[in-house]
Amino acid sequence: MKNNKEITNRDLAESIEDLARMTQKGFVEMKEYIDKRFETVDKRFETVDKRFEKIEKKLNKMDDKLDKKANDVDVFSLRHRVEDLELKASWGK
Questions:
Q1: What angle do CA 80, 71, 74 make, to 5 degrees?
Q2: Coil, strand, or helix at residue 93?
Q3: pLDDT tens-digit series, residues 2-14
Q4: Total count of domains within the chain
Q5: 25, part of any domain
Q6: Range of the domain at 46
């Protein structure tokens, strides 16, 4: 069957406008969806950043404690060596 209805310029213009509106609506909906997803991702990154900051602070404290402990061990070792040398030196008298 053939459709004998003629398509006028006005019909064509209305169809193009309808298509443009549908396309615009699709882009607006997609933008809203993408914006919501980015908000979610941003919030998750903020949470991860806060966790990394806490970890970094803890690591810095541990590093400070290890530096102090290493210094204490060095002092203990040197004290022990000096005491050994003093003992050895006193035996020779």
A1: 25
A2: coil
A3: 566 777 889 899 9
A4: 1
A5: yes
A6: 20-93
Domain assignment present for residue 36? The answer is yes
Residue in this structure with the two tokens 């006028």, named with its chain if needed? 8
Measure the CA–CA gap between 90 and 92, rounded to whole angstroms. 5
C-alpha dist (Å) from residue 47 to 44, 54, 58: 5, 11, 17
pTM exceeding 0.70: no
Question: Does any domain span residue 1?
Answer: no
Amino acid at 37: R
Task: Confirm whether 54 is domain-assigned.
Answer: yes
Spell out, as residue ranges, where the chain has pLDDT lower than 70: 1-4, 92-93
Closest CA relative to residue 40, chosen from 50, 29, 32, 28? 32
